[in-house]
Amino acid sequence: MADPIGVAKDIIEKFNAGDWSGMRSALTADAVEDEFATQRRLEGSEAVVAAAEGWKRAFPDAHGTVRSAMASGNTASLEVTWEGTQTGDLEGPQGTVPASGRQVSVPAVWVMEVEGDKGKALRHYFDLMTVLAQIGAVPAGAS
Which residues of 26-57 are buried (b: 16+ CB within 10 A; e: fewer)? Predict the structure, then answer.
């Protein structure tokens, strides 16, 4: 079994670099990601990568910095700070938030179960209201 922290960090680095084929190959074909802030359940590596591409279109310089990591068995838990500038439109189920030119910085927790040497099940926790407030889509302090 591969080191789950190494597998999870590698996928974040592939996101940071916009390496979509590398990201796809680092996931099992039937990978699932629960992105709780957006209430999306992404089923299959294609859907997981497509969602990552969508974030990168809205925040082309988006990158995750791993602040801490721990593992238990085949599961890694990473504390990540996501940062970027919204220079593209942010597409969502409620519509489109036009590019604001504003920077965001949001803490997150990313939990990944690894199968072999690939990501299999991902659970992503972050505060979407903070992101929306930082890009001016909702008033700061809104809840």
Answer: bbbeebbbebebeeeebeebeebbebbeebbe
CATH fold for the domain made of 4-134: Nuclear Transport Factor 2; Chain: A, (3.10.450)
**Residue found by looking up tokens 């085949």 in the block:** 74
Q: Are 52 and 15 in contact (CB under 8 A)?
A: yes
- Nearest CA among 7, 32, 14 for reference residue 118: 7
Question: pLDDT per position in the chain (143 positions), as tens?
Answer: 689 999 999 999 999 999 999 999 999 999 999 999 999 999 999 999 999 999 999 999 999 999 999 999 999 999 999 999 999 999 877 789 999 999 999 999 999 999 999 999 999 999 999 999 999 988 877 65
Spatial contact of 65 and 15, defined as CB atoms under 8 Å apart: no
Cβ neighbors of 21 (< 8 A, separation 6 or more) are: none
